[in-house]
Amino acid sequence: xxxxxxxxPYLIEGTALAALAAGAAVAWRRHAQAQAQEAARVQGAxxxxxLAQAQARHxxxxxxxxxxxxALVAQVESLRAELAQRxxxxxxxxxxxxxxxxxxxxxxxHAARIASEASRLKLMSSTFERWHEQMISLMAQNHDMHQxxxxxxxxxxxxxxxxxxASIEAARAGAAGRGFSIVAGEVRALATRSxxxxxxxxxxxxxxxxxxxxxxxxxxxGGKMIxxxxxxxxxxSNQLHTQLEAARxxxxx
Amino acid sequence: MIGTHAKDSIERIFFAAAxxxxxxxxxxxxxxxxxxxxxxQGEHLVVLTISSMQFRLLLLLHFxxxxxxRRYYVGDAARTLTECFMEFGxxxxxxxxxxxxxxFPDLGMSTPYALSSGCLPYLRELKPDSVQSYAITIxxxxxxxxxxxxxxxxxxxxxxxxxxxxxxxxxGELELF
Lengths: 253, 177
What we know:
The structure holds 2 protein chains of 2 kinds.
Chain A: H1 2-121, H2 125-172, H3 178-252
Chain B: H1 4-21, E1 30-35, E2 44-52, E3 55-63, H2 67-73, H3 81-100, E4 107-109, E5 113-116, E6 130-138, E7 142-152, H4 162-171
Antiparallel strand pairs in B: 1-6, 2-3, 2-4, 2-5, 3-7, 6-7
């Protein structure tokens, strides 16, 4: 029994201690739960705040993305409009270029034609040469007439001398030579008239020579003037054609 | 229809051309004096024409076929005086043409032609605006005559630069026609 008595306090103390310990444990557990709950609450609040921040950020990002999208859409529209404008300009330039090419080809064609015409017209020099040859022929004929007139003049001078001699001889013959004297006088008068006519004819030939030579020289010199002008036109047309050809080659390259 | 400046310019151009082209040696003196009337100074006549759209100019050179003239222009060559003189006349007219082309871009010149000096009085038939004759003495012994006849279609007046004429004279020896 004593033993029980001895052991009992110990049992009681142990039980108490156990109870105390259990209470402490409960208290600690409660405390721990409270702490855990607090921690969980804090963590939840933190998470909620983070979530709210994330949501706000997300909304902001969405708004920003929406703005960017709108800006991009606007930019795309602007670029499309600019592209359309540039296409219009390019089309207009292409049309202008095609027109210029057509004009250039036309100009080349005309330049080649002018050069060809100028070259062809230079052949008119043969016409001037023909006129010149005819002038030479005409002047040769005039020269021939000069010579014949001179011969005629010489004959007339001779006839004049003969008629004078006849008059002298008729005078020597006295009354018998009276009729012959009249004939000699008539011959002298005719020879004198012929001499005057021959002089007048010579003057006409001289006048004819000068007018003919001056006229044909004017034609000849005028022909050279025209030929030089045509050569100048031909040269300028060929230069223009070459320049246009070079421009076309450059454009194709 | 022809102005005094044009007359004076043509005369100066002719003087310069004659002094360098009508001589056989550039050192020979060539005295030119205007003379009244259109009387020829010799039996032979060489005529040349310069034509433009505004005018035509006739250069008529007259000469006698005498010993001095033959000796000067023919020398020992087996050619007639007229043939030789036509070459000198052609050179003289060519020099005038080269000066005139500075003022009239469209010009042409004829070949020379020989006529009798009896033709000279009939220049009036061309209805000229100006006719002027000159007596030319070359190397103090050869005497020839020249007549310048200008016919115009439009009023003609221009001033030939003296410096240009002189510059042309000095370069004349190297030119060919």
